[in-house]
Amino acid sequence: MSDYPPISEHLDDVESARTEGRRKMDWALQHMPILNELRDQFEAEKPLDGQVIGMAMHVEAKTANLVELLALGGAEVAITGCNPLSTHDDVSAALDAHENITSYAVRGVDEDEYYDAIESVVSHEPTITVDDGMDMVFAIHEDYPELIDTIVGGAEETTTGVHRLRAMDEDGALEYPVFAVNDTPMKRLFDNVHGTGESSLANIAMTTNVSFASKNVVVAGYGYCGKGVAKKASGQNANVIVTEVEPRRALEAHMEGYDVMPMNEAAKVGDIFVTTTGNRDIVTEKDFEVMKDGAILSNAGHFDIEIDLEALSDLAVDEYDARDGVRAYEMDDGRKLNVLAEGRLVNLASPIALGHPIEVMDQSFGVQAVCVRELVENADAYDAGVHDVPDELDVEVAEIKLAAEGVEIDALTDEQREYMGSWSHGT
């Protein structure tokens, strides 16, 4: 087991970092009515008393407020990053100052340090896991199976992690229950569409200082994240091109008015590329060979394998940092292709990135919090495997949000409920 140290042992001025991190968390919390409501409930009722929660997440201000909520609910929490470049060290330090929280998240770690930090979290012997990408679940099953019998369950935040979990479940290898938080409406309809769409384009614009208007923006993948990027880019007067492998999604993009074509055709005309697939080798050597001079490549999927950077580096005769967060690769014909945030999540890993809007993550983290509570309160109801989030939990979070916004809605009458629940009413 790793003895990788907490964030406090990596910083020269821990107190200043904690102060700045707390300032960021407090600002975010002002715009998180769902977590504020749940904080009051969790602090009063202590539903997580006695639990140890191991987390691998993007450690920034919004996530930190979820972590603190779980600690206020009675849990001991250990956390590290789920991406080497998405951690805010000051926020990590602020979390580590809490008596019930240990944070191992450090920005800019190498691959060995990244996995050492996960092992340090696992050394706390979590009874619940909360993941973004499934690296912690995998580490436990692969290296520490003796912990599985004492794990109540887990929750997975993102598309890539859920894909991995479902594959693991289909192989009969997932040995405790995990909620697919990513697949619930309160996550997909808001976090994936509005969150990914807005934050990805905002960070591309801030990193490059280019406009989307009149540009050919190529969106790889037309799932919920791709739909969000395409919608927001179109709203900024870009010409949107979608690439897909799934016929129905491709048809949907076509019917929405976007151009649809293979990546190698899109590569010839694209100005800005945004991958959103969660898969590997989306933009490859044959695409680099036909791209325009000055093309901008970014990833809004998950891992840094959507853009084949090894192939790009092999093709390049020179590479250098064109500006903060932009790596330029010069081809032998003089063309320059520009990769943002080292091919990692552009909305979280670029130097100025702040991730999804606060209000969006308030909803997703609200679902995470009630799922953790559900695992503790009704653990016996869930066998090993991937589980959909119970609809009543998703509705609970939506109701808190509507109440906070002062929005009222109608309610079904008894007659309407009976009609909708009956098969005997005919014409």
UniProtKB/TrEMBL annotation:
Keywords: Cytoplasm, Hydrolase, NAD, One-carbon metabolism. Coiled coil: none annotated. Pathway: Amino-acid biosynthesis; L-homocysteine biosynthesis; L-homocysteine from S-adenosyl-L-homocysteine: step 1/1. It catalyses: S-adenosyl-L-homocysteine + H2O = L-homocysteine + adenosine. NAD(+) binds at residues 158-160, 192, 221-228, 244, 279, 300-302, 347, 356. Substrate binds at D132, E157, K187, D191. This is Adenosylhomocysteinase. The gene is ahcY.
